[in-house]
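We were asked to recover a plausible sequence for a given structure. The inputs and outputs are reproduced exactly as logged, with field labels preserved.

PROBLEM: sequence recovery
POSITIONS: 428
GIVEN STRUCTURE:
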């Protein structure tokens, strides 16, 4: 099927092939296309990195950004015209593409870039029915979650006078800030072993009820940007166009990943992170030093020597140094393993890096790693839960719906990712 797909792509892209020299020669110098979700200026440092790589290789790399990454990639695959590489932020999606034969396994020369827990292996059967377990993607940039951001406020529970910021709107993926809450609370309550069991389909959803109730308790105590407004408002943009919910003046605490610091870099007093467990006074020994993480992962959809070379370069120290130099101080990216130094860092970036360095366990964002249909059902469930007047009344029904979807995915063998938690020391 892969060979037929590649042949079909050549037929559809005849004009491009004439310019590029055809589809048969993987070493041919041509323009490589990279698809990703960074837009609105967020892509500029990455484009600079591609430009630097191009100066070294003599090749041309074109980045195309879209907020509808999955839908765009699926459409291109169906048309037989995939990008050379896609930067994905969902291992669940990446695994689905791998199982369908659309994403290609990493060759030995770049397999070391598949750093856990961002790049767990996937077992795929070939046309002869032989199963092989391989890595199919590699993280190029990562973020730390399990954080509460505040502007010089002491740690402690939010109150009616000091409420939580909350916006769940994010286009087609609205709801994910709420799933981050549930996931983080589960990790802190149960520890990484049980968290991983749940994320990989081994735990009934009714066992997650304490995390939902804790979230309801928290947001009931702090009525900031909540209710219908919280449901419909952006996770990062205020109605007046400013970015950063803490700037509203209506809330004091924000539960969000390390990427949100880019909206607060010039704030006085500074906006800094506190680990969720420390902020909430959660003392679970099982979860001590455990954080959720997310990442942007490179996967190859049109294999060639040039594409694999690009993946190797994007995960190299040279590319990381170029990326750090190109990014503003408050937007410096984080990478697996040893941090890249050499240029000024903002206070928030230094604070996050310190937490990364002190972490005991890091666990991949659970919803990102779930089969896409279960992930989407999870998004919808948190939206319905937040909008409900009587949250305790609707919770059993929502968990029953999620459990039914879990069982369906289990019957279809859709849970294919394991090892979602790892020690940060495992990263190179």
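RECOVERED SEQUENCE:
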């Amino acid at each position: 099927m892969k060979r037929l797909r590649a042949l079909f792509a050549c037929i559809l892209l005849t004009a491009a092939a004439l310019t590029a020299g055809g589809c048969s020669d993987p070493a041919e110098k041509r323009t490589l296309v990279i698809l990703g979700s960074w837009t609105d200026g967020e892509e500029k440092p990455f484009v600079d990195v591609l430009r630097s790589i191009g100066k070294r290789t003599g090749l041309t790399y074109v980045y195309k950004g879209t907020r509808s990454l999955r839908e765009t990639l699926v459409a291109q695959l169906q048309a037989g015209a995939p990008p050379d590489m896609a930067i994905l932020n969902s291992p669940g999606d990446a695994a689905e593409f791998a199982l369908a034969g659309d994403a290609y396994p990493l060759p030995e020369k770049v397999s070391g870039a598949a750093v856990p827990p961002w790049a767990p292996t996937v077992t795929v059967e070939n046309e002869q029915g032989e199963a092989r377990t391989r890595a199919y993607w590699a993280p190029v940039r990562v973020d730390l979650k399990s954080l509460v951001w505040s502007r010089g406020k002491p740690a402690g529970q939010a109150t009616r006078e000091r409420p939580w910021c909350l916006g769940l709107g994010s286009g087609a993926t609205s709801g994910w800030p709420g799933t981050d809450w549930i996931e983080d609370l589960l990790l802190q309550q149960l520890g990484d072993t049980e968290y991983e069991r749940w994320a990989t389909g081994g735990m009934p959803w009714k066992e997650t009820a304490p995390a939902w109730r804790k979230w309801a308790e928290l947001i009931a105590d702090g009525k900031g940007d909540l209710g219908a407004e919280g449901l419909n408002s952006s996770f990062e943009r205020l109605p007046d166009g400013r970015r950063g919910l803490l700037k509203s003046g209506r809330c004091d605490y924000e539960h969000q990943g390390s990427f949100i610091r880019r909206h607060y870099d010039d704030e006085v007093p500074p906006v800094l992170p506190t680990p969720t467990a420390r902020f909430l006074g959660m003392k679970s020994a099982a979860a001590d030093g455990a954080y959720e993480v997310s990442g942007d992962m490179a996967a190859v959809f049109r294999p060639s020597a040039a594409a694999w070379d690009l993946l190797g370069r994007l995960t190299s120290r040279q590319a990381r140094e170029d990326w750090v130099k190109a990014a503003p101080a408050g937007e410096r990216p984080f990478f697996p393993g040893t941090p890249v130094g050499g240029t000024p860092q903002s206070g928030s970036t230094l604070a996050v890096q310190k937490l990364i360095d002190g972490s005991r366990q890091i666990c991949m964002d659970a919803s990102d790693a779930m089969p896409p249909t279960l992930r989407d059902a999870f998004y919808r469930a948190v939206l319905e839960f937040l909008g409900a007047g009587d949250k305790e009344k609707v919770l059993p029904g929502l968990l029953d719906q999620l459990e039914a979807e879990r069982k369906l995915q289990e019957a279809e063998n859709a849970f294919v990712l394991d090892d979602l938690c790892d020690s940060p020391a495992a990263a190179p």
